[in-house]
Amino acid sequence: MDWGLKNRLSGIINQQNGKGVMLAVDHGYFLGPTERLENPEKTIKPLLRYADSLMLTRGVLRRCVAPESNVPIVLRVSGGSSILGEDLSKETITTSIEEAIRLNAACLAISIFVGSKYEHQTLNNLSKLVDQGEKFGIPVLAVTAVGKEMARDSRYLGLACRIAAELGAHLVKTYYCENFEEVVQGCPVPVIIAGGKKLPEKDALNLTFNAIRDGASGVDMGRNIWQSDQPVEMIQAVRSIVHDGLSVEEAFNSFFNKKGIPSNELETMNTR
Length: 272
Ligand code: 5RP
Known about the structure:
Blueprint: H1 3-10, E1 20-24, H2 28-31, H3 40-44, E2 53-56, H4 58-64, E3 73-76, E4 78-79, E5 92-93, H5 97-102, E6 107-112, H6 119-136, E7 140-144, H7 154-166, E8 171-174, H8 180-185, E9 191-194, H9 201-213, E10 218-221, H10 223-226, H11 231-244, H12 248-256, H13 263-270
Parallel strand pairs: 1-2, 1-10, 2-3, 3-6, 6-7, 7-8, 8-9, 9-10
Antiparallel strand pairs: 4-5
């Protein structure tokens, strides 16, 4: 593998333990001002020091993250549809490779919608992006986006992850599911998981623990961190599972019980 590409990847997935914590704040690219991400700068700032990498669009990067910050940037470069549009899968590449280089991106992120109306277009986008990224030593993260009608099971997610890797993605993001180890085994590049909709903190930590146990190389987590009432504690707890091998109980007690709030109260308090 090319030196630059390997160097960029090593900022995202730690080469010592093969794990990484990516903080996802790209949701606005199709959702608009999502709850607790209305002011991205305010959301991102306290969490940044605990993230190995930050996933976002160029617009939020330019306006909401200081250029002096040394966190590796995973630049979302696909989009073009909104939740109000015809079909979310109708995506194109929205940011040029020159712009990604100017912004010092460590990785390019793009969604693929396997099984959707625009499957071909999004797979074609991925292939083209890999060609461009490889030309300049920038790895590509394929986001296996799931349409409402798709089952999030190991057969479907395994298919989407494998196709992403076959087309040249260097890293794949998917969802945790039953028999997740089959998804990982069938995918020759590292797999990281999205957190999905907000869960009670302990459930999200459990999801993290199970994914790591079953072979995930880390998380690309958003809502379960910054929609928590204690986002800093949450990202630290997630980190402690991903990097330090803590159990769910250990992680929860280390970060949520340190203020002496009984854990049962805390879980109720944070459940929406
Ligand atoms: C949206 C994304 C998000 O970055 C991804 O889903 C991770 O965020 P969350 O943990 O909130 O699901 O790619 O398309």
